[in-house]
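Please go through this protein, sequence plus structure tokens, and consider how the sequence yields the tokens. Keep your notes short.
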Amino acid sequence: MKQVKKKILLLAAGILLLVFIAAGIFLYSTIFQPFSLSETAYIHIGRERNYEEVVRQLKEEAELPSEKIFRLLAERMNYPNMVKTGKYAIEDGMTMPDVIRRLRSGNQTPVNLTFNNMRTGENLAGRISQQLMADSLSLLNALNDPANAEKFGFDEQTFISMFIPNTYEVYWDISIENLLNRMKREYDLFWNESRKEKAGKIRLTPVQVSTLASIVEEEATYADEYPTVAGLYLNRLNRGMRLEADPTVKFAVGDFSLRRILFKHLEVESPYNTYKNSGLPPGPIRVPSIKAIDAILSPQQHNYLFMCAKDDLSGRHNFATTHAEHARNAAAYRRTLNMRGIY
């Protein structure tokens, strides 16, 4: 009888051992089961640092192998108490311990921050906020803060010229303060000795170059016209002539959609209206591109003083050295606008 009981106990122990072994194998295989992704997934952890939101994103964006096992592991590795903001890459072949270690250490994936074709501070703040954790309102408030502008050597009208359109590698959760510091460093690198020397030759400061570049970029639809238009405006400045640039009137009126500048628009009282004011306006009317800035620094040498959109409405311009020639070009353009019913 004792022998039978002993065999039963041994059998039960054996079965129990097999169960533990099987459970261990299952647990091990689940813990170290690699993520199977066709492409890298990204999760974003905002300033709330919500652990439940992290789990949700891992399930939806990265096809988490096992939520239950992940939670057990995360608790074991104390991750719920160590959630950090940022953008994190979840790559094919990673295991759950790999992911937890990456999230817990704050090992983020940088963001390639880009912005171009920005007309206003609102546009700029909106574009940046689409790519970073910072919200657009906070960014806009920082851009409109006179103290911020003064800190970096600008004023409210010129602060926007500190942002040189390019691609910058930053972290998704970068603070607004650090972002502004980064943009100032990039601005200083952009305005190297070569560019400063070129600006000096045309008797403009870097900010004035950006201001004129913003007008050129708004005026010329095609980049190959930038150097020609730049040379024209510099000719007018050097002769003491008003720029009489239509884009500055649109800016002053607050409507870039205007297809035709009328006499009533030319009479608007604004320091940006270059039909009424000599010299450059107080600041850029958009964030100028590098190509436009470099066009000012390396303008085409010519004697043009006047320009008018071509009457084929192609977006290109006729250039003239005399007012009589310009008047003919302008008359042809007006006829086309009248024929098309553009008022």
